[in-house]
Design goal:
The structure is a single chain. The protein is an alpha+beta fold and 212 residues long. The protein has a single domain, classed as Endonuclease Chain A (Endonuclease, Chain A), CATH 3.30.870.10. The chain contains nine helices and eight strands. An eight-stranded mixed β-sheet has the order 1-7-6-5-2-3-4-8, with helices on both faces. It is globular and about 50 Å long. The chain starts with a helix and ends with a helix.
């Protein structure tokens, strides 16, 4: 009798508690909530996969968390815009050097033909999302220190399975419009700012000198 009463009480309690309180979704606002810190925690908890598409990626702590996840045998794949590879502080090459699969957005439609004046400015891969196991991270938040500590940004952590499927499909579609980091066409590589190419050269030289 007591057992039946407890079961009934639990059912009633479940029905009375608002659905929202059971939600696994969260929103983070920077700079107050420091979304990057929460993102690193979620990456550190990843067991199977991290598939991310991020326009600007310069945060070393997030990059290190991804590398550590890769070392734990997590499937880590990252799509970035060419803007990240051209940025002096971009982490695309750092990730690739440490075993992370990195893809650079390079759609065929961005190649100038002379017929379309807008192709002077190629389309951007402007997403900022990640599928981390059964979690979906998205919002305006770029993976940079400025986004974490200075800018007014937002990030959503969602548990909606249907949305995850749609974002995973979009991620695979983006990869089809990418090339592996370091494999950009020669013309595109030559468009990198001189300062960026010099920094990359000095980093590579330092690695050769320091490592046995």
């Amino acid at each position: 009798m007591k057992k039946q009463f407890r079961s009934s009480a639990l059912i009633i309690l479940f029905l009375l508690v608002p659905t929202a309180s059971w939600s696994k979704s969260h929103v983070y606002f920077s700079p107050n909530d420091k979304p990057g810190n929460e993102l690193i925690k979620i990456i550190d908890e990843a067991k199977k996969k991290i598939h991310a598409a991020v326009y600007m990626f310069t945060d070393n702590k997030i990059a290190t968390a991804l590398i550590n996840a890769k070392k734990r045998k997590v499937d880590v794949q990252v799509v970035v815009d060419k803007t990240t590879t051209e940025c002096m502080y971009g982490k695309a090459y750092f990730l690739q050097a440490n075993g992370v699969d990195v893809f650079v957005y390079s759609p065929l439609s961005s190649k100038p033909t002379g017929d379309n004046p807008y192709q002077k400015y190629p389309p951007l891969m402007h997403h900022k999302f990640a599928i981390i196991d059964k979690k979906l991270w998205t919002g305006s938040f770029n993976w940079t220190r400025s986004a974490n500590y200075r800018n007014e940004e937002n990030a959503l952590l969602l548990s909606d399975q249907a949305l995850q499927v749609q974002f995973e499909e979009r991620f695979e579609m983006l990869k089809q419009k990418c090339v592996p980091v370091g494999a950009q066409p020669i013309a595109a590589q030559n468009q990198e700012p001189l300062r960026t190419r010099m920094v990359n050269f000095l980093r590579a030289l330092k690695t050769m000198v320091v490592q046995p």
